[in-house]
UniProtKB/TrEMBL annotation:
Superkingdom assignment: Eukaryota
Protein's name in the database: Amino acid transporter transmembrane domain-containing protein
Organism from which the protein derives: Lotus japonicus
Transmembrane segments: 31-53, 59-80, 101-120, 126-145, 157-176, 182-209, 275-295, 315-335, 374-391, 397-415, 436-457
Functional summary from the UniProt entry: Carrier protein involved in proton-driven auxin influx. Mediates the formation of auxin gradient from developing leaves (site of auxin biosynthesis) to tips by contributing to the loading of auxin in vascular tissues and facilitating acropetal (base to tip) auxin transport within inner tissues of the root apex, and basipetal (tip to base) auxin transport within outer tissues of the root apex. May be involved in lateral roots and nodules formation.
Main localization (coarse): membrane
Domain Amino acid transporter transmembrane: 28-456
Subcellular location: Cell membrane; Endomembrane system
Region (Disordered) residue spans: 1-26
Keyword terms of this UniProt record: Amino-acid transport, Auxin signaling pathway, Cell membrane, Membrane, Symport, Transmembrane, Transmembrane helix, Transport
Pfam families associated with the record: Aa_trans
Membrane topology recorded in Swiss-Prot or TrEMBL: Multi-pass membrane protein
């Protein structure tokens, strides 16, 4: 029989196999699960707006811009992966959030700046997903309406009831304890994202095979009686705002890395996931954008499924929108959980002895309920839903979110952390090249942001608040 001492050693050996080097619960994620999370976040309904972006830029610039920004994001996300641990990418201390990494490498001021951008972007994306979901729900209703009454029928409906229903669903889903519990939802969302992307591409391909494809241009829509030179420039800026952040997942990149097992090193696994995820997404983006543009030419709608470039078969159009909705349901939580967590961590640090903040109540559905989380997360979802109801403009809001997060999160912070980590000398050739890349991307963000704000203001002047119909 084992002695008490031997039992104690056995217990210690068991516990050591259940925790990581930092004492936290052992992680089991790998390259495949990380790639799945990346795809879930990256493939938003914005993929269906890439055909419109291609129409503004034309074949040459459209394809070149997509490939160029994919290469930039692979490079900068690999820099982010190397900064997951500090100071050494393999043996250093883990940074559990993007903000922690910025603080470790760049200091307190940059930490605050990063937090404002990152969590502001997360909040904006959840609003955008609410808009997208309601747009798809309305599109399903319109598809049925057009099928029954004809393509010229009046089939316009308010988005508001659908936004409210989506918000109620997210109130329940927001009680999921943490990011690690989202793999199942993330997998369903990733599969759904491929579903609507391939349906949109397939319908576009059907138009081409039927010989009904519209004329396309090497340099996009021509300036003429229907499009002034000034309007062309603004549309090009907006197109850049749709394309540049297409592979954006910086807001949750460390949450994804924090699911990866520690052997092999997280940075090595994440670099593989970056290449796999972004390459797959770029191919998908090129496919959707090119086929959609080839099908509709200058008349390409802002979203090829909800903008009714297609009417029949109505059931397939509806199915594509069902896939969008399924994806938005999961992706909302993947992006909202880091925002929930940072607020709850801050509250716990401020009031560590609070029963209201810390006491948990067991439930019959498998996880504990916390009153603070219940109330705060519910209030957040309600506010996000109200803002979405006030400004339900798909393309403009999409471009604005892209502009806000693209330069600082995808380019500026990764480059500055890399310079600090590798101690690259100021004004050296590599330093100059990196800063030039940052400057170019900054100008893209400014142009896209200005264009999207202009578009939102025009729509606000055109429609009364909470009275928008599509």
């Amino acid at each position: 029989m084992d002695t008490e001492e031997e039992k104690g050693h056995a217990s210690m050996r068991l516990s050591s196999t259940e925790v990581d080097d930092d004492g936290r619960t052992k992680r089991t994620g790998n390259v495949v699960t990380a790639t799945t999370h990346i795809i879930t976040v990256v493939v938003g309904a914005g993929v269906l707006a890439l055909a419109w972006a291609m129409a503004q830029l034309g074949w040459i610039a459209g394809i070149a811009v997509m490939v160029m920004f994919a290469c930039i994001t692979i490079y900068t996300y690999n820099l982010i992966a190397d900064c997951y641990r500090y100071p050494d990418p393999v043996t250093g201390k883990r940074n559990y959030t993007y903000m922690q990494a910025v603080h470790a490498y760049l200091g307190g001021k940059m930490y605050v700046f990063c937090g404002l951008i990152q969590y502001g972007k997360l909040a904006g994306v959840t609003i955008g997903y609410t808009i997208t979901t309601s747009t798809s729900l309305v599109a399903i209703r319109k598809a049925i309406c057009f099928h029954k009454k004809g393509h010229q029928a009046y089939c316009k409906f308010s988005n508001n009831p659908y936004m409210i229903a989506f918000g109620i669903l997210q109130i329940f889903l927001s009680q999921i304890p943490n990011f690690h519990k989202l793999t199942f939802i993330s997998t369903i969302a990733a599969l759904s994202s491929f579903g609507y992307a391939f349906i949109g591409s397939g319908l576009s391909l059907g138009v081409l095979f039927s010989g009904k494809g519209e004329t396309t241009r090497l340099f996009g829509i021509k300036v003429g009686p229907e499009l002034s030179g000034e309007e062309k420039v603004w549309k090009v800026f907006s197109a850049l705002g749709n394309i540049a952040p297409a592979c954006s997942f910086a807001t949750v990149v460390y949450d994804i890395m924090d699911t990866l097992k520690s052997d092999p090193p997280e940075s090595i696994q994440m670099k593989k996931a970056n290449v796999l995820g972004i390459t797959a997404m770029t191919i998908l983006f090129l496919l959707c954008g090119s086929l959609g543009y080839a099908a509709f030419g200058d008349q390409t709608p802002g979203n090829i499924l909800t903008g009714f470039g297609f009417y029949e078969p109505h059931w397939l159009v509806a199915l594509g929108n069902v896939c969008i909705i399924a994806h938005m349901v999961g992706a909302y939580q993947v992006l909202a959980q880091p925002l929930f967590r940072i607020v709850e961590m801050g509250a716990n640090l401020a009031w560590p002895q609070s029963t209201f903040l810390n006491k948990e109540y067991p439930t019959k559905i498998g996880f504990n309920l916390n009153l603070f989380k219940l109330i705060w997360r519910t209030i957040y979802v309600i506010i996000a839903t109200i803002i979405a109801m006030a400004m339900p403009f798909f393309n403009e809001f999409l471009a604005l979110l892209g502009a806000i997060g693209f330069w600082p999160l995808i380019v500026f912070f990764p480059i500055q952390m890399h310079i600090s980590q590798k101690q690259i000398r100021t004004l050296s050739s590599k330093w100059c090249v990196l800063q030039m890349l940052s400057l170019v991307c900054f100008l893209v963000s400014v142009a896209a942001g200005a264009s999207s704000v202009r578009g939102i203001m025009e729509n606000i002047n055109k429609y009364k608040l909470f009275m928008y119909k599509q």
